[in-house]
Amino acid sequence: MRRNHFIAAAGICLALIVYATLAKLAGRPALMGHAEAYWVVVIERFSAYGLLGFLLSFLLPGRLKLACALVVAVAIGLEVLQAVTPDRDPRLIDVLQKAAGGTVGVLLAQTILAFLPRPPSQG
User: Fold this and answer.
1) pTM, full prediction
2) Scanning 24, 48, 57, 75, which has the fewest C-beta atoms within 10 Å of its C-beta?
C-alpha cells in the first residue's frame, strides 16, 4: 500500500513540475509574485526536482543510477520542450540546477534507505 502512495506522490510532483515548466510565463506559479528574485527561482527548481528525485528513489530502492538517470532525463526533456513554448526559453544552467536538485534528492533518499530496517527475507 505504501508503494501506491509513493507512486501517487511522484506522479503529482511530476505533473506540477511539467505544468510549471511548460506553462506560459503569465500562468506560471510563483512563490513570491512574478517579480521574484533569481535565487528564489533557483531554490524552487532545485527543491522541486529534489522532491521528485527523493520520491523516485523510494520507488526504486537500491537503484541509484536509474533514479538519477530518470530525474536528469526529465530535467533535460522538459527543458527541451520549452523550446516549443512561445514565451519560454531553454537554458543549460536551468538543466544543471534541476539535475543537481534531483540528484541530491536521490542521494538523500538512498542514504535514508540505507539506515532503514529491511524486511526479513522469505527463504
Assistant:
1) 0.87
2) 24
